[in-house]
Amino acid sequence: MPWVVLVTAGLIEIVYMAALEKSDTFTRLWPTVIFVVGVVGSMAGVAYAIRSIPLGTAYAVWVGIGAVGTALYGMLFLREPAGLARLGCILLILVGVVGLNLLHNASGGETA
Predict the structure, then answer these.
(1) Pairwise CA distance, residues 88 & 21, whole Å
(2) Residues 45, 50, 53, CA angle at the centre, nearest 5°?
(3) Is residue 112 over pLDDT 50?
(4) pLDDT tier at 1, thresholds 50, 70, 90
(5) How far, in whole angstroms, is CA 86 from its chain's centroid?
(6) Rounded to whole angstroms, how far apart are CA atoms 110 and 104?
(7) How many CB atoms sit inside 10 A of residue 73's CB?
(8) Where do transmembrane segments lie in this chain (predicted)?
(9) Closest to 68 in 3D by CA, of 81, 86, 54
(10) How far apart are CA 80 and CA 90, in angstroms?
């Protein structure tokens, strides 16, 4: 269950970052509300997950999901550049997150 909560918290991070962009520096009410609720919910999820998952692994997975998801959101919906080098860097983040999860599992940690 901690892994499900952690992944959900990472996905919520993508939502609140998209809301932050739409909030126009906190001048639009509903995107700002979504941002604040998202931050609180995402942090609560990470706080729950680190009770069972090592802090470094949990943080890397959470940030990795948020970073990759937010970058892809920007490319798909905000017309941010999607060059080969940028996509390669996103792939490196994914490889790192998967690697940390595999190492955690190989060392006897909780499985997903």
Answers:
(1) 24
(2) 120
(3) no
(4) very high
(5) 18
(6) 8
(7) 16
(8) 33-50, 57-78, 84-103
(9) 86
(10) 14
